[in-house]
TrEMBL record:
PROSITE patterns from the UniProt entry: GUANYLATE_KINASE_1, GUANYLATE_KINASE_2
Catalytic activity: GMP + ATP = GDP + ADP
Organism: Glycomyces harbinensis
Binding site for ATP: G19, P20, S21, G22, V23, G24, K25, G26
Gene giving rise to this polypeptide: gmk
Protein name (database record): Guanylate kinase
A single MF term (Gene Ontology): ATP binding
UniProt keyword terms in alphabetical order: ATP-binding, Cytoplasm, Kinase, Nucleotide-binding, Transferase
Family: Belongs to the guanylate kinase family.
Keyword ATP-binding: yes
Main location: cytoplasm
Length: 202
């Protein structure tokens, strides 16, 4: 679960999007892919089973626990974490390729992964996607209808901790509408916001 420190120099164009389960990260990501196709999104590996409609290689690389563990052993992840009973990780190669070319990269990952990126890449930009209210978060997560009650309870437990960590992030985008949240995020991906942030650290 570590990122080599020599990657710090590559971090300037790395943006991490996090937020509690059900807040709308996937919805915002899908809209960005449709309307802002120049934004490059990392495709994670997971041991979770695909949801109906999810496509292997596009939404995730769906892998077995054995495959995931051998990727950990081979140092193939930029970061990885165990979340609500499954493993999730960002393949290192494609992200490094983008950053080396000086191009922006966007990761949508949970809190432990965001913290790993923050520790190793101090100039990475961390964006927190927040719900308009707790009740609305519960409504969205249950309304999606893709998880059983026990899984929803686990995700809501994790959500409490994730909401408490908002202050660790550089920016908060509140997901009132998917279109507005995507536009705000894309604005943060473009260089002026990043330049201002970096300038403030000089
Ligand atoms: N701005 C919004 N207003 C109303 N409903 C929304 C909004 N954004 C997302 N939703 C709905 O909330 C549910 C959860 O959204 P989504 O699956 O994108 O969340 P997520 O953050 O990716 O969750 P997870 O981390 O569990 O994958 C979906 O049913 C989605 O349609
Ligand atoms: N640390 C990482 N977290 C990841 C990665 N890919 C996705 N995620 C996060 O996991 C949860 C659950 O996702 P779901 O698709 O099962 O609902 C969510 O918070 C994602 O952001 C990753 O590569 N690393």
């Amino acid at each position: 679960m570590s990122i080599d420190h020599h990657h710090a120099a590559l971090a300037q164009r790395l943006t991490v999007l996090s937020g509690p389960s059900g807040v709308g990260k996937g919805s915002v990501k899908a809209l960005i892919q449709e309307y802002y196709p120049w934004v490059w999104l990392s495709v994670s590996c997971t041991t979770r089973k695909p949801r109906p409609g999810e496509v292997d290689g596009a939404d995730y690389h769906f892998v077995s626990t054995e495959q995931f563990e051998s990727m950990i052993a081979a140092g193939e992840f930029l970061e990885w974490a165990s979340y609500a009973g499954n493993l999730y990780g960002t393949p290192r190669g494609p992200v490094e390729e983008r950053l080396r070319a000086g191009l922006p990269a966007l990761l949508e990952i949970e809190l432990q992964g965001a913290r790993q990126v923050r520790r190793a890449m101090r100039d990475a930009q961390l964006v927190f996607l927040a719900p308009p209210s707790w009740d609305e978060l519960v409504r969205r997560l249950t309304g999606r209808g893709t998880e059983d009650e026990a899984t929803i309870a686990r995700r809501l437990d994790a959500a409490r901790q994730e909401l408490a960590a908002e202050a660790e992030f550089d920016h908060t985008v509140t997901n009132v509408s998917i279109e507005q949240a995507a536009a705000e995020l894309v604005e943060l991906l473009s260089s002026p916001a990043l330049a201002a942030k970096l300038a403030s650290r000089l």
